[in-house]
Amino acid sequence: MTTVEIFLDSKTNMFFPNSEITGKICLNTNEAETIKKSECYNCCLQYESEHYYLNENECLWKFNETNQLLNGEYWFPFKFVIPSNAPSNVNEEFGEIQYFIKADIEFYGKKFWGYKKYNEFQYYGFSVCPIINLNNLDPKLKLSASTKITQIEDKFFSCTKNPLNVMMTLPKSGFVCGEKIPIKIEIKNKTSMKIESIEYGIELKCLYVGTYECLCFVETLNKETTFYVAKDFIKPESDSTICNILIPPISPTFTDCSILKLEYSVFVKVHTNAFFQSGPIISIPITIGTVPMKKIESEEPLNAMEILESANFLEGSNRCKMDGKYKEIEGPKNFQPKFACYSNLFFNEKLSVKE
To answer: Can you tell which superkingdom this protein's organism belongs to (predicted)?
Structure first.
């Protein structure tokens, strides 16, 4: 029997751009088999499109004169560097960015019925946390943002038009995972409609660009999906209220790729008892980074790496359905990437995450 295991020297398996990954592949065999080669791959990220941020192959052992490894345990060290432009892991419905080590052992030995050439694979997933410093992005992210909407109720057999005004205000529009966003909601209702509840939360919009290549043509498909990554309800008790929504462990905002983009917004939806119309919905775009804003503008410049290394790294949700449904994805199964969070989250704390 032959077993292959991958070990990384890091205890967290969380890495930053420009950092070096080191580890070892352990091969343990107690049967006489001919091993022709041993390779280690590390790669990333479908209609279908691919964009590689990291794709390196390294041969760790080649067949020798005897073309055979004797029984025993063998260790093959490896190392590589995370590129400076490597984005965060993404596990969304139709696309994902994944990072993994792949060990490929090519054998020639007794397999099933007779001696044949065959390969054994082993995968080991890891997470990448890019440095997205909110202090170095658009200064407008530090400013408060607000939006409002008016819904008119038309009275039958009357020229009267009664308004329902809803305003939402955020203290800023740049956040990190683990922060609680205070959402100020102001409602002025001059209609006969009763406000039954207010729904609020964080919405993720995913934009995908895929291509299909045939012998005579190439077709491009643009796909857009939306998810509520966090949401909650309240019963209105006054015309003005402040609701807090917790940002769960999720991929940061990602707009620099030609085939995959992640954009977030905070939304508020007012539910009324009206039969023939839905309540008004408003939203404000937000940016989710990995390095939080300074609390006071006069503070000294932040050391981004020190702050990132002190963050909590928590597992996020996996909404990717490509594996086994559309196309078999190479890589580790059921791997949950981790994301930088900046508050002490406990398992019993309510996240209101919708899978």
So the answer is: Eukaryota
